[in-house]
Amino acid sequence: MDFKSKKNTDELKNEIKNIVDLILDDYTKGRDVDQMDVFNQPDRDAVKDIVVKLLRIIYPGYSRDKIYKSYNDSNRISIVIEDVIYNMQKQIAIAFHHSPEYANASDETLECGARCITHEFFKQLPKIREYVDTDLQACYDGDPAAYSKGEVILSYPGLLATTINRIAHELYLLKVPLIPRMMTEYAHSRTGIDIHPGATIGKYLMIDHGTGIVIGETSIIGDHVKIYQGVTIGGLSTRGGQTLKGVKRHPTIQNNVTIYAGASILGGETVIGEGSVIGANAFITESVAAGSRISMQRCQ
Fold first, then answer.
1. Is the dihedral of CA 224, 226, 227, 233 positive or negative?
2. pLDDT at position 6, please?
């Protein structure tokens, strides 16, 4: 190496060191983005893995295990269930660091609480699967392009999003911090469908096509509801920010309602009456009576 190239190397090392020092110094300002306690944050990849394995438990005949090989279905599913129980407990215990209820709790208390909640969640899985089965039926019955229920399970983004939401909703009801939202945001990234885990959703929900659908936290959706792409079931205004936490700010959709593409239904006091049909691109901020037919009139 000649002197010139060595000098350039030394200058480069010094420049890199200065850049590193600059960024490290920026972490010392005490802001929320400066927090570096990585061991008290749930692991996104671990949560995603939990979701994927829960989908295998809910639909046991629609995925192959790439690690374990078993000719006995009960053994095959038992391994997955035990694996998810173990890893869900770990992630919930970590997530409890973000709950005021567990602010000063010992590690033993966190682990005990996580274990109890995980076991309670798994006791709800038969109910989750019951609701998922109705969603599958609704998707199949409502779409003439569906040639089998297997096709719906393997390829329909709407069913994937609603299935993950039903998983996340049960954890939300059990007051698990962070993880339910991480699960539904994983579904959002996969499908373009954004359903908050707090939304209360009845049986036989069909989401057709799905891309761009938003369903807010305090939404209540009844049975046999059909929603097309681009629909927003949202808040009328978010100017109040955190002061609106816990307030019913999203609509109620009663049974047997169809909402066509691009419609926006907004506001916590807005109720869409049973059996109504909301046309494409409608903008609704007030309640409509049962059996209503709402459509946008085309300007001439």
1. negative
2. 60
Per-residue tokens: 122:
């798994």
* Exposure class string for 254-285: b at 16+ Cβ within 10 A, else e: bbbbbbbbbbbbbbbebbbbbbbbbbeebebe
pLDDT tens for 54-92 read: 999 999 988 777 666 667 778 889 999 999 999 999 999
Is the CB of residue 215 less than 8 Å from the CB of residue 221?
yes
Residue 200 CA: distances (Å) to CA of 34, 36, 76: 36, 35, 32
Give DSSP secondary structure letters for 222-271: -SS-EEETT-EEE-S--TTGGGGTTS--S-EE-TT-EE-TT-EEE-TT-E
Q: Which amino acid is at 202?
A: G
Residue that the structure tokens 């929603």 belong to: 227
Instruction: For 139, list phi and psi in degrees, rounded to 5.
Output: -65, -40
Instruction: State both tokens at 107.
Output: 């590690």
Q: Are the beta carbons of 270 and 254 closer than 8 angstroms? A: no
Asked if pLDDT for residue 233 goes beyond 50, the answer is: yes
Q: At residue 242, does pLDDT exceed 90?
A: no
